[in-house]
Design a protein that fits this description.
The chain has helices spanning 2-8, 41-48, 61-64, 75-86, 104-109, 111-114, 129-134, 138-154, 168-171, 177-190, 197-207, 217-243, and strands at residues 53-59, 92-98, 122-126, 158-162, 194-195. The protein is an alpha/beta fold. It has a single domain (36-243), classed as Rossmann fold, CATH 3.40.50.1110. It has a five-stranded parallel β-sheet with strand order 2-1-3-4-5, with helices on both faces. Helix 4 (75-86) crosses helix 12 and helix 8 (138-154) runs parallel beside helix 10 (177-190).
């Protein structure tokens, strides 16, 4: 099981470098999977008051981003870059609160310390990967996520939930479906939008943008950075559209 978890924590390392690796790649989000019509009242209020837009990225290894080899290439760091470009003049602060190997319940347990004390306008919560890898009880996962969402709502914080990563090497041995369904149900009950990372990455694989095969070690870090940047760009597009 520990070996399996280590594999999950570096999922982006299994992505093949696309053709033209030395050039920036376009990685569009399919229209049906894009974040649209976001409300984000707390974030809008912060910008209207000319205050910093403070965002906390809560999650496990894919948020922590050690596979990128440098903190500036994690998805939260790239999100800050994309948002700064899309919202010129705004003060954007994205705080990375990813901790590898944590279940959703363990993340929920640190909301007070790692989220509420920072007074963010928005939390992006990457949840469920470790729960699925360990085969934890789906109802317990749903309860932990739902309880955490209630606490964030009570604090007046905008929320986006992000589901798991996709790679053929993991979906062949882990049944993510019940956890994705539970995540979406909990988010729907809480009135929270979901960034469908699993389906987005699956679409990229089907289109050939990323082939999701093992790559040479020398290519893995660069590929990881591309994937994180693509995901951050997709999140930023939805946020900028709502906040401009």
């Amino acid at each position: 099981m520990k070996r399996l978890l280590r594999g999950l924590l570096v999922l982006p390392l299994l992505l093949a470098v696309p053709a033209g690796a030395d050039e920036p790649i376009a990685c569009p989000i399919p229209a049906e999977l894009a974040l649209t019509d976001l409300s984000l009242p707390a974030s809008k209020a912060a910008l209207a008051r000319h205050q910093p837009l403070r965002i906390v990225a809560l999650g496990a290894a894919a948020t922590e981003g050690s596979a990128a080899g440098d903190p500036q290439w994690t998805y939260p760091a790239r999100l800050q870059v994309h948002l700064a470009a899309g919202l010129p003049g705004a003060d954007i602060i994205v705080i990375n609160k990813g901790v590898a190997h944590q279940t959703t319940a363990e993340m929920a347990a640190r909301i007070e310390r790692d989220v509420l004390t920072l007074h963010p306008a928005l939390v992006i919560w990457d949840a469920g990967t470790v729960d699925a890898a360990r085969g934890l009880d789906v109802d317990a996962f749903s309860e932990a996520l739902g309880g955490g969402l209630e606490r964030l709502h009570a604090a007046g914080i905008d929320i986006i939930v992000m589901d798991m990563q996709y790679a053929p090497s993991t979906v062949s041995i882990i049944d993510f479906a019940p956890y994705i369904d539970a995540l979406r149900s909990a988010a729907d009950l809480a009135g929270v939008p979901v960034f469908n990372r699993f389906e987005v990455m699956h679409d990229w694989g089907e289109s050939g943008l990323f082939r999701y095969d093992e790559t040479a070690p020398a290519a893995r870090t660069a590929t990881t950075r591309r994937v994180y940047d693509c995901l951050a760009g997709g999140l930023a597009d939805g946020l900028v559209a709502a906040l401009k």
